[in-house]
From TrEMBL, chain A:
InterPro entries per UniProt: Ribosomal_uL1-like, Ribosomal_uL1/biogenesis, Ribosomal_uL1_3-a/b-sand
Name used for this protein in its record: Ribosomal protein L1
PANTHER family: 54S RIBOSOMAL PROTEIN L1, MITOCHONDRIAL, LARGE RIBOSOMAL SUBUNIT PROTEIN UL1M
Chain residue ranges for the region called Disordered: 41-79
Annotated organism of origin: Mollisia scopiformis (Conifer needle endophyte fungus)
GO cellular component terms, A-Z: mitochondrial large ribosomal subunit
Transmembrane feature ranges: none
Family of this protein: Belongs to the universal ribosomal protein uL1 family.
A Pfam family annotated for this UniProt entry: Ribosomal_L1
GO MF annotation terms: structural constituent of ribosome
UniProt entry keywords in alphabetical sequence: Ribonucleoprotein, Ribosomal protein
Record lineage: Eukaryota, Fungi, Dikarya, Ascomycota, Pezizomycotina
Keyword Ribonucleoprotein: yes
UniProtKB/TrEMBL annotation, chain B:
Name of the featured protein: Ribosomal protein/NADH dehydrogenase domain-containing protein
Limits of the Ribosomal protein/NADH dehydrogenase domain: 41-149
Lyase as UniProt keyword: no
Subcellular location: Mitochondrion
Biased composition annotated in UniProt, kind: Polar residues: 98-111, 118-128
């Protein structure tokens, strides 16, 4: 061992200089550590590969750091709930203040193309059921939803669905189109009798990831599609992702009163959903944020306006 | 959502920027509408008008929430770049209130608001030529034309601005320090890697 060390060190130095003659300021310390590691004889390659792994994390002394890193890993436990922050730092806005800022950020945009968005954050566990539902806002945000109804094209359901505003009605043609990748709809409803056919057609692989696959659980497999259609046109879906529900809540051209009604309906709906979850699951609202297409998010305080506020809702009602 | 402190710091900076700066001015009640008309691209002198829209117009809108400010951009790059300011007389301004409009009602157009829409309450219009003008020149002309009152920061806001600047200076210093540190670490790692590589091949 003692004889091998100087020999190898010399060797490595020779190789280094022959490969990269340009390097002039190679620290002697780093070189010597390499040499020491390399000088362990037959074990050398194995240790080196481990050291390489540790090296990716950090720093000059790989072995020491590797040990430290492993210890930290063992101690760290995965979080079971979504992280909550100290709410004292949170600045909250009244609806009118938030809308005044948002309208300033969105100045000069088309009033129908820009949307107010709402993000509702929960205190919640990472596993367990999520809040997921559909609602109809008093003032719908998006009115041009394309809906596809899967039912036999010559049945009475087809006629009703078409008259209720479905853009696509049929069975085989739709299956073929979907398999070809032509998905020309935003929602999909299936009539109960056609469910077996649809399941056989194997649409799940295409529609599933897009969230379009009809299922009984979501209430998109129904006896009478026409009745559901009426709800869907002008209705909106929301679901919790990573402890937050996000949804478009209004167009930029809405007045504060209209926005107030929409927000109230939405929050009430979510609270009802939370109450319907089973008793063991404890979910609470922790934050409600209003933002828009091009503006930052404004945490809402729940008030419409402050008493000493200088702006009125009429000021924010102009185009 | 990122942590609250981070979010609030970013939000405060953005809100300060929309409250104060070039364009923060209160227009007199005689002004009923501002309309900008220019091309989509920046060639042929449309640069300043877009800059004005992006930077100054939000501040104007914040301090005058009731005044409709519309922007319509055309594909005609060689066309004019004009700002139209609509006025009514001072007596009428005191009595009439802005018309309520909402996109929930059906008669609101979805496209750019047509010139004629503000017709009824407007008595005279003035135009500012924005072509080949810097945003600061456009703003200066607008302020002179409307005799607007420029908003100055309150003591509270000055304090916030100072705090923000201190914070920025601190973070810039820390970033520089960390960058140097990381560069040093990477350099050492690289040297180690090279030394090992040459031994392996032997």
């Amino acid at each position: 061992m003692s004889t091998a060390r100087p020999c190898l060190a010399q060797l490595s130095r020779i190789c280094l200089y022959s490969n990269r003659p340009g390097i002039t300021s190679v620290p002697a310390r780093s070189l010597s550590t390499t040499a020491a590691v390399a000088a362990r004889g037959p074990n050398a390659p194995k240790i080196l590969s481990k050291a390489d792994k540790g090296l990716r994390k950090a720093s000059t002394n790989p072995q020491k750091n590797k040990k430290k890193g492993e210890e930290v890993k063992k101690k760290k436990k995965a979080r079971t709930a979504y992280k909550q922050y100290d709410q004292r730092e949170l600045e909250q806005f009244t609806l009118l203040d938030a809308m005044r800022y948002i309208r300033a950020f969105e100045v000069g945009q088309k009033p129908t193309s820009v949307k107010y968005e709402m993000a509702v954050r929960f205190k919640s566990q990472k596993n367990g059921p999520v809040v997921r539902n559909r609602l109809r806002l008093p003032h719908p945000v998006k009115t041009d939803v394309r809906i596809c109804v899967i039912c036999p094209p010559d049945s009475k359901y087809a006629e009703q669905a078409k008259s209720a505003g479905a853009s696509l009605v049929g069975e085989e043609e739709i299956f073929e189109a979907v398999k070809d990748g032509k998905i020309e709809f935003d929602r999909c409803i299936c009539q109960t009798d056609s469910l077996d056919k649809m399941n056989k057609a194997g649409l799940g692989r295409v529609l599933g990831p897009r969230g379009l696959m009809p299922s009984t659980k979501l209430g998109t497999v129904v006896k009478d599609p026409a009745a559901v259609l009426k709800d869907l046109v002008g209705g909106a879906e929301y679901r919790e992702r990573m402890g937050v529900v996000r949804m478009a809540i209004g167009q930029l051209g809405f007045t504060p009163e209209e926005m107030q009604r929409n927000i109230k309906t939405f929050i009430d709906h979510i609270k009802k959903d939370l109450a319907h979850l089973s008793d063991r699951i404890n979910k609470e609202l922790s934050e409600v944020v209003l933002s828009s297409t091009n503006s930052p998010g404004f945490p809402l305080s729940g008030q419409f306006t402050k008493l000493d506020s200088s702006i009125t809702s009429r000021d924010l009602s102009t185009s | 959502m990122p942590s609250i402190v981070k979010r609030m710091r970013a939000l405060r900076a953005q809100l300060l920027a929309v409250r104060l700066g070039p364009g923060a001015a209160i227009l007199p009640p005689e002004v009923t509408r501002i309309h900008m008309n220019f091309a989509i691209g920046v060639e042929d002198g449309h640069y300043g008008s877009r800059k004005f829209w992006r930077n100054c117009l939000p501040r104007l809108k914040y301090h005058n929430p009731a005044i409709p400010m519309t922007v319509s951009r055309t594909a005609d790059q060689l066309g004019p770049a004009l700002m139209t300011v609509h006025f009514i007389s001072a007596a009428e301004a005191a009595s009439t209130k802005p018309e309520i409009s909402s996109t929930t009602s059906k008669h609101t157009s979805t496209g750019p608001v047509p010139e004629s829409k503000a017709g009824s309450s407007t008595q005279r219009t003035e135009t500012i030529n924005m072509k080949h003008r810097e945003e600061s020149e456009i703003l200066e002309q607008l302020l002179k034309l409307t005799r607007a009152k420029v908003v100055t920061p309150t003591p509270e806001e000055t304090r916030q601005i100072r705090e923000m600047e201190e914070q920025n200076a601190r973070s810039a210093r820390d970033a520089a320090m960390m960058q140097a540190e990381n560069a040093k670490r990477k350099r050492e790692e690289e040297i180690l890697r090279q030394a090992r590589g040459t031994i392996d091949t032997n």
